[in-house]
Design a protein that fits this description.
Blueprint lengths: L2 E2 L6 E4 L5 E3 L6 H9 L11 E8 L1 H5 L3 H10 L3 E8 L3 H7 L9 H8 L4 E9 L1 H9 L12 H5 L8 E3 L3 H11 L8
Antiparallel strand pairs: 1-2, 2-3, 4-6, 4-7, 5-6
Length: 186
Amino acid sequence: MAGRLAGCGKAYLPATCGEEKPALKGRTGAAIDRAKSNSPNKQEVIMASERTFSIIKPDATKRNLTGAINQKIEAAGLRIVGQKRIKMSQSQAEGFYGVHKERPFFKSLVAFMTSGPVVVQVLQGDNAVLKYREVMGATDPAKANVGTIRKEFAESIEANSVHGSDSPENAKIEIEFFFKPEEIVD
């Protein structure tokens, strides 16, 4: 039976070893049975693929880092299933970052995000939100782990090269803000 972990909005299935595994969203019982029967460990529950949203920010596009960042994304096992280079308008930036409207950095964030082209992306893979957040690294590049996008490419906390969704729910909202369904091809 699926349950909920405290502090987590996701449904989880109890695993035999005491760990919790994400529920298989959108799969039929037969598909789950097939996945289990093809698994070397019959008790193992495979993770459902999920999507997350990414922005390669103006500081990175200005320095032609899109390819290097995409290479890190793909090396982490995430697929880029939607991507477009855009010049974000003032109203797009204000709408996208509206949650921060009352924060002191809002105006500078909007100015930065409209200062040059960005690359908006839809990434897909197992546990995509968490995996991409690990690949990005901490917001402050000085605190980011070695090998992460922000440690290698970010210039500062604001000019930190990339944005990524912080939850599957926000990923859905952010993807729909920039992409039509037909622009995502998996």
